[in-house]
Amino acid sequence: MGKDDILLKVDGLVKHFELSQGFWGRKAVVQAVDDVSFHICQGETLGLVGESGCGKTTVGRTVIKLYEPTAGAIVFDGRDITGLKEKEMRSLRKRMQIIFQDPYASLNARMTVGDIISEPLIIHSLARGPKLREQAVKLLQKVGLSPNYINRYPHEFSSGQRQRIGIARALAVNPDFIVCDEPISALDVSIQAQVVNLLEDLQQEMGLTYLFITHDLSMVKHISKRIGVMYLGKLVELAESSELYQRPLHPYTRALLSAIPVPDPDAAAQKQRVILKGDLPSPINPPAGCRFRTRCQFARDICSRSNPEMIQVGLKHMVACHIVINRLTDRFFNK
Amino acid sequence: MYEIPKEKFNPLLERNNDTADIIRPGVTYWGDAWHRLRQNKMAMLGMYTIILIILLAIWGPILSQHSYSDQYLDKQGLGPSNEHWFGTDGLGRDLFVRVLYGARISLAVGLVASLLNLTVGVLYGGIAGLAGGRVDNLMMRMVDMFYSIPLVLYVILMMVLIGPGLKSIFMALGLVYWLEMARVVRAQILTLKEQEFVMAARALGASQARILFRHLIPNCMGPIIITVSMNIPLAIFTEAFLSFLGLGVAIPMASWGVLASDALPAIRSYPHLLFFPAMAISLTILAFNFLGDGLRDALDPRLRK
After folding, report:
1. Contact (Cβ atoms closer than 8 angstroms) between residue B46 and residue B287
2. Is the distance from CB of B166 to CB of B106 less than 8 angstroms?
3. What is the extent of the structural domain holding B263?
4. How many domains does chain B have?
5. What are the CB-based long-range contacts (under 8 Å, 24+) for B129-136?
6. Of A43, A52, A139, A302, which has the most beta carbons under 10 Å away?
7. Residues 212-251 of B with CB under 8 A from A
8. What residues in B contact A94, CB-CB < 8 Å?
9. Which residues of B touch A124 (CB under 8 A)?
10. Shortest Cα distance from A95 to chain B (angstroms)?
11. Closest Cβ opposite residue B205 in set A93, A100, A111
């Protein structure tokens, strides 16, 4: 994989939200995303997992500039889009789209399906008049919905169908890159598979690149080539999917993977579950040093003193943990 | 046992089994709301009353053979009769026509109030809510400022500046009657703009104006309509009340407030002079309030059955 293939490169992305508290406007800062770096190659799917509130949605929304990044750089197809104004972004919006988690909130209840799907075409003047209708019908067929639905309103559909409408809207501008922000977590398991398969088919057909955000660990393994694990606004481990599932290094990744339900009771009895102590700390006041140290059974002094960097430990495996790095280097020199 | 003859069985011919082709006509939000409104008898009564009043106000004075300023000097202060349905006033003018003229003024006041609500109020609140932050703060503090001064003060100020009459009442209403709508719309937009469909529109590259007019405002139509329908009777009542105090429409124009005020000195001899305009005021305001209540219930999706 050459460097030219990189579609999206994110370097040291930081997103803080300011909250004003109380009458005198004391400012609190939510450190939603702190120093996250990764890249996504053309046609690839990068999975992003983590528990609720770890900042994965914020990452997804910031890389397509729905939020202004506080610091860091976002390079899309070789072009730095970090500082671009909304007007300059408009032409790029055709190339990057997003599919949302909640299929109820993400469709305007006052617009018909046809209007929803043709809106992107109108905004970017991609079609007009009778062609607009034609395109909308094509898009509906592409996501497996009957063209007869074109004049209906979103509330007349099931959640799976609504999610398909959301996908059709994202596809309307013929994008290169789609952020899938937990597109399946609000759906039934049977429908989850349908939607994931649809996403995979579309990827092959249209050469799409996905950033797939989810907390469903078995689904993310299925769909993505590489997976990043986030904890409290930080990326803690990034590896190829098979590598991550076979050889998880970061203690948090291990705890997370041990929580995947196994459909075989014998195997499940064998499995050791890593139970984390304590609660997720507040992102307003995250622990100094390693953010995971308050819940980590291996934590030592160094963890509270310095913030672990992402360090390459394998061909495509990076991890941010003092303990893991120490052990690996010890093992390397002892041998 | 009864044998079913074999020839009665036929293989099922292949036919179009595409069930998706059977389309139920889509139920729109408004269709649904209208359906619920129709079941509310009081609201429908209110609506028909309003339509009747509007029709009478427009056509009544034209069809009547009397004019609002014609005096019948031989028929002063008569009670209701065949010729003069509401009787005549102390100067021998036909009260029915004068009440209908009053309806014109009241409806004009209601129309102005609702237009202001729908244009200035919705736009102002929409822009403040969408912009947020410092702009929002500044715009809403202006609203608070206007709100803190009583309406009567505005009216008196306007009368000093441009003289008494309908114009000064309209100006005063203009200063005040969009404020509540601005607040309602802003509050709605603050919650709506965080929703994912707005985020989706933004991701599609929609302009701020498009987001405001295509996505946000259509989604607050419910509260907007309710606020308008509650504000119209309030404006009508305010006009009647100001005219009653002598701060409104000047003679010989007739507004319901003026008619009621004129009737007061002779209330013992000619009570019908007070009764008819007062009845017109109460009927109109009741009708608007019933309709407003009905609309509030009909547009609230939580009440969907």
Report:
1. yes
2. no
3. 38-61+72-77+84-303
4. 1
5. B129/B185, B129/B186, B129/B187, B129/B188, B129/B189, B129/B190, B129/B193, B129/B216, B130/B189, B130/B193, B130/B208, B130/B211, B130/B212, B130/B216, B132/B190, B132/B193, B136/B186
6. A139
7. 214-215, 218-219, 221
8. 205
9. 205
10. 10
11. A93
* pTM of the full structure: 0.80
Q: What is the DSSP string of B19-66?
A: GGGS-PPP--HHHHHHHHHHH-HHHHHHHHHHHHHHHHHHHHHHHSSS
What tokens appear for A47 in the block? Answer: 């999975």
Residues A117, A168 contacting (CB under 8 angstroms): yes
Residue-by-residue pLDDT tens, chain B, 305 positions: 678 888 888 777 666 555 545 555 656 677 778 888 888 888 999 999 999 989 988 887 777 777 777 777 777 767 777 777 777 777 777 788 888 888 888 888 888 888 888 899 999 999 999 998 889 999 999 999 988 988 888 888 888 888 777 788 888 888 888 899 999 999 999 999 888 899 999 999 888 899 999 899 988 888 888 888 888 888 888 888 888 887 777 666 778 888 888 888 888 888 888 888 888 889 999 999 999 888 888 876 555 54
- All residues of chain B having their beta carbon less than 8 Å from the beta carbon of residue A68 are none
* Residue contact B23–A173, C-beta within 8 A: no
B204 and A123 within 8 Å at the Cβ level: the answer is yes
Pairs across A and B, CB distance < 8 A: 75
The verdict on B203 touching A (C-beta cutoff 8 Å) is yes
What are chain A's domains?
Answer: 3-95+175-334 (3.40.50.300)
**B99 three-class SS:** helix
Give yes or no for B23 touching A (CB within 8 A): yes
> Is there a contact between B201 and A108 if contact means CB atoms under 8 Å apart?
yes
B1 assigned to some structural domain: no
Q: Using a CB-CB distance cutoff of 8 angstroms, which residues of chain A are in contact with residue B217?
A: none
Q: Which helix (H) or strand (E) holds A325?
A: helix A322-334
Dist CA A218 CA A215 (whole Å): 9
Mutate which: A98, A102, A110, vs B, most B CBs within 10 A:
A110
**Hey, are the CB atoms on B205 and A146 less than 8 Å from each other?**
no
State how far residue B181 is from chain A, nearest Cα, in angstroms.
21
Q: What is the CATH number of the domain that holds B46?
A: 1.10.3720.10
The verdict on residue B92 lying in a domain is yes
SS3 A150: helix
A127/A112 Cα distance (integer angstroms): 18
Inside any domain, residue B44: yes
Mutate to test the interface with A, among B204, B208, B225 (most CBs of A within 10 A): B204
Contact B26 A66 (CB under 8 A): no
